[in-house]
Specification:
The protein is of the alpha/beta class. 39% of the residues lie in helices and 17% in strands.
Length: 209
């Protein structure tokens, strides 16, 4: 299994509909193996999400960026994606391993509390996607959990990827709170320069503090 990427560029329906989506995906992927592009759209059919994942794989291949599939272990296994991201209503990580024993990608679990983090660890998650750490437009009704929450979850020992209101300017304090990496939607996909935004986020982990 390749190293877990530090930066996770998560898509949604609005991002996938951008006229220049492919160019933005390629720009983010240019950061290489430290980046994961997430095929995510809860409203998509299996065929549609498969097409999205295949497109991201083609765009990510030259710089060897990773591709993660959200919610659909069958698609992740069929396409040999590097990772899978599961929500609270999806299969448990251990059940995925049992159902797809030949697939060896990363399995992440989305968590919103210390209790959920503990449950995900018990269920066999490889890493945790924890948040929202900051206020975020993608979940306007959900309160920010803050850096103290991130620190608490990171102390459990699994790699933690922070999500929710992440910006390049906040990545250093996310790192200092113990996070392995960060995930974002608008800060990456809607940036004026997507490649520069990705590199700015990654610099918190790749450059000396």
């Amino acid at each position: 299994m390749r190293p877990l990427p530090r930066l996770h560029a998560v898509t949604d329906a609005a991002v996938l509909a951008l006229d220049d989506f492919a160019a933005r995906a390629a720009a983010i992927a240019a950061a290489g193996p430290a980046v994961a592009l997430h095929a995510r759209n809860r409203a998509a059919t299996g065929a549609e999400l498969t097409a999205i994942a295949r497109r991201l794989t083609a765009l990510a291949r030259p710089p060897e960026a990773a591709v993660f599939v959200n919610a659909r272990p069958d698609i992740a296994a069929a396409l040999d994606a590097q990772g899978l991201q599961l929500g609270g209503e999806d299969l448990a990580p251990r059940a995925v391993r049992q159902a797809f024993p030949r697939w060896r990608g990363w399995i992440g679990a989305s968590v919103h509390s210390a209790a959920e983090a503990g449950a995900a660890e018990q269920e066999g998650a490889d890493f945790l996607l924890a948040g929202p750490v900051y206020p975020t437009g993608s979940h306007p009704g959900r309160p920010a959990l803050g850096l103290a929450f991130l620190e608490e979850v990171a102390k459990r020992g699994l790699p933690v990827v922070a999500i929710g209101g992440v910006t390049p300017e906040r990545c250093a304090e996310i790192r200092d709170a113990g996070a392995w990496g960060a995930a974002a939607i608008s800060a990456l996909w809607l940036a004026a320069d997507a490649a520069a935004a990705a590199m700015a986020c990654l610099s918190a982990w790749t450059e000396p503090a």
